[in-house]
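User: Second chain of the day. Same drill as before.
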Amino acid sequence: MFKFFRKIRQQLLSQNKISKYLLYAIGEIVLVVIGILIALSINNWNEDRKLKQFEYKILKDIETSMEGNFFQLNGCLRANKKAIMSADLILKHLDENLPYNDSLDFHFSRALGWCSPVFNNAGYESLKTYGTNLVTNDTIREELGIYDAGWME
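Assistant: Same format as last time:
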């Protein structure tokens, strides 16, 4: 291909057809520019595709973390409700001045147990590292703002 263009160029120069040579040179420059623009367009498309995949992965990590946090909150809530019920039963027993019985042992031990959830926010922390602007959906980005509010602390 390069030999072909070189041959045309040499023929035009040897025949002193400078105007045709300039037209040929401009055409060749236009072809090169079009090739570069196509390559840049393909590269930009590929980078956007990779960015979308990365955004999806981080959002999926956040979703998984939130599901785990929700499961843990529910478990702790159930356990803490049982502890409160046992403490209420012990208080009622003491307020009414009832005699001690063996079933209170169970309630004493359950009343002392208190569950504190441990949250997993790895997905959101990685999103903060890369910037929240990685999320293209405005609604999702606004909803994720609750993490920055510090409600977990």
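The mean pLDDT is 84.

User: Great, on to the next one.
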